Amino acid sequence: MSSNESATTESMLQESRRFPPPAAFAEQAHIKSPEEYAALHKRSVEDPDAFWAEVAAELHWFDKWDRVLEWNLPDAKWFVNGKTNLCFNCIDRHIEAGHGDKVALVWEGEVPKDDGSFEIERYTYNDLKREVSTFANVLKARGVKKGDVVTIYMGMVPQLAIAMLACARIGAPHSIIFGGFSAQAICDRVEDGQSEIIITCDGSWRRGKPVPLKQNVDDALKMTDRVKNVIVYRRCNNDVQMQAGRDHWWHELDKDASDDCPAEPMDSEDLLFILYTSGSTGKPKGIMHTTAGYMVHTYLTSKLTFDLKPDDPDEMYWCTADIGWITGHSYIIYGILANRVPTLMYEGGPNFPAEDRFWDVIERQKVTKFYTAPTAIRTFMKWGDSHVEKHDLSSLKVLGTVGEPINPEAWMWYHRVIGKENCPIVDTWWQTETGGHMLTPLPGATTTTPGSCCKPMIGIDAAVVNSEGEEVGTNEGGILVIRKPWPSMLRGIYGDRERFIDTYWSKVEGMYCPADGARVDEDGNFWITGRIDDVILVAGHNIGTMEVESALVSHDAVAEAAVVGFPHDVKGNGVAAFVILRGAIPQGDEADALKKALTKHVRGELGPIGQPDQIRFTEALPKTRSGKIMRRLLRDIAAGNEIKQDTTTLEDRTIVDKLVAQGG
Ligand code: WTA
């Protein structure tokens, strides 16, 4: 643990503020009190089969399951031999219950029209069924069959939701790539997932400018010839090259397709999607989620964490994540639609056309449940309260956060300035791998404390243990683990069984290890203290230090690189790179120019998330006599901390002095 992480832990230890749910909220909530939570949690972990069967029975099944769970560590099968379809549960089920003309999805474009208003589209369940079925038929006509991996690389347009639901409808697993990723990332994922089709857009709007998505796909496809079909949705009207035979316009394929496409009965354990996430080694991991368990868990957690009320005509849910991340998969699309609550999708950036855009959206759309990230909250704090004060946010009822630990100052600002001290905050801890919420307050039941993600979700058996798997004492730091299987747990890493076992199942015997450090306080609240592997959370997004190192080393000028995280006011963590060059270390403008070139190079390889915030050139890296890079020392140098550690084991102490003198 770096000294910075322990400093955060100290400030958390002093946190004594407590916020019980407002009485009026608790009264109407699904789970109304701490006692009700505790009793349900106890039952759910002691008799998981009965508990999860009850939840699953609220959804539609073509064939019921034989057994709720078959568990052979680390392999789980949930709802064994059941047949269901997640798209059907998100759309058709509601139509059959008479809600076809209710709003399912609201979309707001980023760029204002000539009159200053925004493009807004509303899709009812009937609309979605028609659009999704039509596009499902388009996919089939391009040869996509059940089990074929479909790559999706789009901006935040309704067609992204339609494309993913169409995949789920016909049983083709999607592999969605965040629109901020580069050509190299597309190529790697297409190859890893053996995907022969990509759905993309000409461009996507970001702060008033089109990001050239199709161009990135073209660049990626120069590096692989696996892809046979590219479907392009026209959004920005930017210039694109269409390659005859391979590239097709969405609107042209769509216009001839039938809108009748019954949902395919899928086996509970059929692959629903792959989503890539960074790990400790250079190569991203293709996390696999299957149909029924993921459906049941995201359905339940959406309902309880956000206290969703489908019959409340005012309910309007908004998650600001991009669908390219797990948060968007689970809590913009699947979990929310399965609950029959309107989900809002916003296309662009938070500061376009102005820094009050989010509050403007909340006011106009009368958002009731709002879900965002600590890095966004810190940015809003920096922009100032005046942007918020211009807007009426009285529709808000629950505020959520996800992606990284939230610092108590940001929590208090969210509570006071956005929630007007009247909205429970749900700080949700979970991962791409867990599929859905694992630790979180429940808004009507949990007394929250700023900076803690509070209690295990119903159905989740979480603990903080030492490396022997024994629970540590109150407020003692340890390893966060999940001791029992849960429905939306990852089923593997695509094509890499060994890595799956190594990464998650070999650190603490018999338990799932997410690689987060944590402690539990005297109230039983969990506090996440930081990653315990080589992953840095930059603006809530995972980036492996090895990924950045490999990207740097792939530049001609670089011989060796070491990358660490350092505390960053807004992004939570920044990326610091220590670079050994092949030639002499340049000085002055020349050094600045090379730093710029390296930053650009990494950006090209990994996209903006991985680009270094600090680069230092060095003749050597501080290594122990046995040749290990002293990463703790690098973290202190990057953070600007005084070097108090024992450096006597260092091979050459003058390296450290030179690095400290150089600055970031
Ligand atoms: C971190 C995002 C503290 C954690 C859903 C986890 C958090 C990683 C929180 C997963 C939180 C996520 N408090 N840390 N509320 N939420 N994390 O896969 O380190 O993008 O392991 O999933 O983010 O990131 P991922």
Topology at a glance:
Layout: H1 3-13, H2 23-28, H3 34-46, H4 48-56, E1 67-72, E2 75-80, E3 83-84, H5 86-90, H6 92-96, E4 103-108, E5 120-124, H7 125-141, E6 150-153, H8 158-170, E7 174-176, H9 183-193, E8 197-201, E9 204-206, E10 209-211, H10 213-221, E11 229-233, E12 247-249, H11 250-255, E13 266-267, E14 271-277, E15 285-290, H12 291-305, E16 317-319, H13 326-338, E17 343-346, H14 357-365, E18 369-372, H15 374-383, H16 386-389, E19 398-402, H17 408-418, E20 425-428, E21 462-465, E22 478-482, E23 492-493, H18 497-505, E24 516-520, E25 526-531, E26 535-538, E27 541-544, H19 545-553, E28 558-568, E29 572-581, H20 588-606, E30 614-617, H21 631-639, H22 654-662
Parallel strand pairs: 4-17, 6-7, 6-8, 7-14, 8-11, 11-12, 16-17, 16-18, 18-19, 19-20, 29-30
Antiparallel strand pairs: 1-2, 3-13, 4-5, 9-10, 14-15, 15-23, 21-22, 22-24, 24-25, 26-27, 28-29
Residues 277, 325-327, 402-405, 427-432, 453, 514, 516, 528, 531, 537, 542 line the site of 5'-O-[(S)-ethoxy(hydroxy)phosphoryl]adenosine.
Which short descriptors sum up this protein?
globular, 8-stranded mixed sheet, alpha/beta, 7-stranded mixed sheet, 22 helices, 664 residues, binds 5'-O-[(S)-ethoxy(hydroxy)phosphoryl]adenosine
Task: Please give a structural write-up.
By secondary structure, this protein is an alpha/beta fold. 33% of the residues lie in helices and 21% in strands. The chain contains 22 helices and 30 strands. An 8-stranded mixed β-sheet has the order 12-11-8-6-7-14-15-23, with helices on both faces. The chain has a 7-stranded mixed β-sheet with strand order 5-4-17-16-18-19-20, with helices on both faces. Strands 21-22-24-25 form a 4-stranded antiparallel β-sheet, with helices on one face. β24 (516-520) and β25 (526-531) form a beta hairpin. The model is unreliable at 1-12 (pLDDT under 50). Residues 277, 325-327, 402-405, 427-432, 453, 514, 516, 528, 531, 537, 542 line the site of 5'-O-[(S)-ethoxy(hydroxy)phosphoryl]adenosine (WTA).
